Inverse folding.
């Protein structure tokens, strides 16, 4: 009679609110895996802050084989200086494995960084100068402009993981659900405030 595996009482609860998609045989996590839907939800509902975690997780996976000592946390915090390098590495490895990567790492990284800088400038202006509060409402367009480069790189990372659908990381834990719920509420409040303003 085989013993049943013990449950971990300290493990955070998870909820599967996505379609049941099994990771293919041979799937690995060479880079941070994520389904397209999960990446989009967490990115937009965290107002882009999820990209810091995304950067950290990818650098963490690259750390053991990187020729020089790197600190994933600081590379994520100061991602403006390291996004080009990360995008180049993912693109290079895709080419080495003859995997499709029809995007330019220099262009996508530059777009990602410039949008981040411009978004911060506009956000500060909306807070500092009277009469320009409406600028804060266009932040969603900056998020979209940042999301598409990230999504393109993620698709290639999933191919490198032999997991095109990102099934290795398609489920949502409790923390993910909280981020999505809070983000949805903030978007709702923003829409209501726009309606009241006009």
């Amino acid at each position: 009679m085989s013993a049943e595996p013990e449950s971990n009482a300290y493990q955070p609860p998870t909820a599967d609110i996505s379609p049941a998609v099994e990771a293919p045989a041979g799937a690995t996590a060479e880079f941070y895996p994520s389904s397209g839907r999960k990446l989009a939800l967490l990115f937009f509902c965290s107002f882009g802050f999820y990209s810091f975690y995304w950067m950290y997780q990818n650098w963490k996976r690259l750390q053991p084989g990187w020729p020089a000592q790197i600190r994933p946390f600081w590379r994520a915090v100061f991602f403006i200086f390291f996004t080009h390098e990360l995008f180049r590495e993912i693109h290079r490895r895709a080419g080495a494995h003859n995997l499709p990567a029809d995007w330019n790492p220099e262009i996508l990284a530059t777009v990602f960084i410039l949008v981040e800088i411009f978004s911060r400038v506009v956000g500060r202006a909306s807070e500092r100068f009277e009469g320009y509060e409406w600028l804060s409402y266009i932040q969603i367009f900056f998020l979209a402009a940042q999301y598409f480069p990230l999504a393109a790189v993620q698709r290639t990372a999933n191919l490198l993981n032999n997991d095109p659908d990102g099934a290795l990381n398609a489920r949502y834990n409790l923390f993910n659900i909280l981020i999505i719920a809070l983000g949805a509420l903030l978007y709702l409040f923003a829409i209501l405030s726009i309606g009241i303003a006009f």
